[in-house]
């Protein structure tokens, strides 16, 4: 497979100030690197270089998104606010969406990375693509930045694919541990985008991501929230892919798939409470690749979102890119031996959460229906 890899050094220069988890440092809070810090993504590059996989990828330089393209989703007033903060002394563009000096131009380049990935895949330059976008985007709403996100890279990329290429069936999967509220809002009444968010229930943002939030108007049923209880490991995630995501994709038959790839469901993430392994991310990628090859000639775009363990995010992301490129390195997960005490199976309460999603969505999709715990049937 020919896999495109998209990043720019500028991504690592977006300055969110000094932080401790999701709060600004100061008082009794000392600075750490577990906030939205460039190190988690810079170390992805470092590991790709160190193991040699970087040389096997097709490097594509991102372009900056235009103002018109950002306006596919965001209001003029909000864009002007971000630019003003960027040109002056920085500040918060909403709710924990810090803009530093020069961040406006970097955010345009981050969104442009997602657009470049879409172009490269649809036009056949590469088979699939991974864009190491920063700042992330999936929380950003039309008039407000939220949770480290300034412009919604993936939502704008999906709208771009609709407008430029006339696509009428785009599947967006968001596996970031936090609910993809901004992308949900962008397509809540759209039946041409199947948006699926699999996330830790009631983590962030507050009061969003419920299974019963299914879309409105013609978009009913095209918004699929899969809120999982804290503590879910790789097995629960893979169960969700098999029982919900694959059947929905088979019925929807997308022309393009975009994945909001936040590696914060990883077992060592400080802002999540899930237990997905690096190999688990590889297996989830394999399923998405299988879906893409079945329905849209492999047209698959990944855009990096969250992930706050500078130690573990690189290994999770490496597994994803190995699967996309079909290039296996000699890198082993160095943290795997420390997780031997973590039982990884699908617990009853986890299956109940999955079944609840199936019950809600089976009113809109023929392919899924609960028969008994852990089993589905497909209707003819």
Automatic annotation (TrEMBL):
Annotated family: Belongs to the histone deacetylase family.
Pfam family, one: Hist_deacetyl
Alphabetical keyword list: Hydrolase
Top-level taxon of the source organism: Bacteria
Protein name: Class II histone deacetylase
Record-annotated Histone deacetylase domain positions: 37-322
CDD domains in alphabetical order: HDAC_classII_1
């Amino acid at each position: 497979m020919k896999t495109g890899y998209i990043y720019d050094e500028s991504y690592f220069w977006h300055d969110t100030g000094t932080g401790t988890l999701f709060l600004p440092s100061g008082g009794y809070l000392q600075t750490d690197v577990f906030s939205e810090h460039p190190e988690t993504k810079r170390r992805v590059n470092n590991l790709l270089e160190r193991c040699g996989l970087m040389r096997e990828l097709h490097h594509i330089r991102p372009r900056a998104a235009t103002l018109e393209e950002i306006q596919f989703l965001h209001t003029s007033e909000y864009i002007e606010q971000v630019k003003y903060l960027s040109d002056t002394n920085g500040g918060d563009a909403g709710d924990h969406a810090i803009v530093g000096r020069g961040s406006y131009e970097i955010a345009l380049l981050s969104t442009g990375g997602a657009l470049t990935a879409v172009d490269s895949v649809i036009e056949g330059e590469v088979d699939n693509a991974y864009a190491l976008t920063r700042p992330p985007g999936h929380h950003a709403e039309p008039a407000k930045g939220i949770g480290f996100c300034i412009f919604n890279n993936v939502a704008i990329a999906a709208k771009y694919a609709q407008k430029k290429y006339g696509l009428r069936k785009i599947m967006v999967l968001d596996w970031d541990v936090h609910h993809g509220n901004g992308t949900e809002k962008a397509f809540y009444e759209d039946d041409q985008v199947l948006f699926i968010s699999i996330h830790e229930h009631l983590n962030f943002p507050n009061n969003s991501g419920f299974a019963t939030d299914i879309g409105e108007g013609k978009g009913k049923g095209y918004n699929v929230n899969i809120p999982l209880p804290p503590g879910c490991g790789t097995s629960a995630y893979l169960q969700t892919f098999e029982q919900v995501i694959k059947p929905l994709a088979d019925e929807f038959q997308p022309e393009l798939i975009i994945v909001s790839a936040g590696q914060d469901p990883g077992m060592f993430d400080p802002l999540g409470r899930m237990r997905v392994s690096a190999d688990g991310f590889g297996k989830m990628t394999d399923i998405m690749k299988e879906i893409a090859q079945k329905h849209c000639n492999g047209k698959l775009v990944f855009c990096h979102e969250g992930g706050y363990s500078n130690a573990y995010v690189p290994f999770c992301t490496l597994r994803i890119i190995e699967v996309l490129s079909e290039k296996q390195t000699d890198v082993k997960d160095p943290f795997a031996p420390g997780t031997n005490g973590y039982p990884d199976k699908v617990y009853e309460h986890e299956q109940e959460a999955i079944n609840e999603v199936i019950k809600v969505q089976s009113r809109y999709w023929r392919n899924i229906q609960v028969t008994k715990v852990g089993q589905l049937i497909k209707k003819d």
